[in-house]
Amino acid sequence: MEERFYREQEIARVPGFLPAATYNLAHTLLARAGKCLFVPIRNLQYMAVLDAEEYIFVDSQSKAWVELAWQHFRPQARAALNERVPFEIVYYLPQAAETMKRLPGEFHQALQLLAERDLPRQDAHILPLARRPRPQ
How far apart are CA 20 and CA 59, in angstroms? Predict the structure, then answer.
């Protein structure tokens, strides 16, 4: 399946920080998915499309037009895996600044739902390890 997305001229570019839990989960799910990951954000009626370079966000009403993008993630700038990740937020449409107010939290919830669906639930069993005496 092929999807095409279009962008208007960039309106603004501002620095941002993504919480470590969100970045790490997105990174893990993307690695499992391969080159691209589609994340439905149902509460906002948006779709996030993730690849190795950026995360784009499109409104369900204008599916082909990118409203905003998150780019230039710098996980190497953090000293520990639980620190937030700096990145750039790029606005393409006027309503993007308003969308951005709710997007980080809703995006994280959507990632969690996706992770729960992707991981098969299985009962864990702990197996005792029997130690054998050392040969002398």
Answer: 25
| Cα–Cα distance, 98 to 119 (Å, whole number) | 33
Per residue in 99-111, pLDDT tens? Answer: 999 999 999 999 9
Domain ranges of the chain: 12-118
In the three-class reduction of DSSP (H, G, I as helix; E, B as strand; rest coil), residue 126 is classed as coil
pLDDT (tens digit per residue) in 71-85: 999 999 988 989 999
Whole-angstrom distance, CA of residue 95 vs CA of residue 30: 27
DSSP 8-state assignment for residue 65 = B
Furthest CA-CA distance within the chain: 78
What is the SS3 assignment for 74?
coil
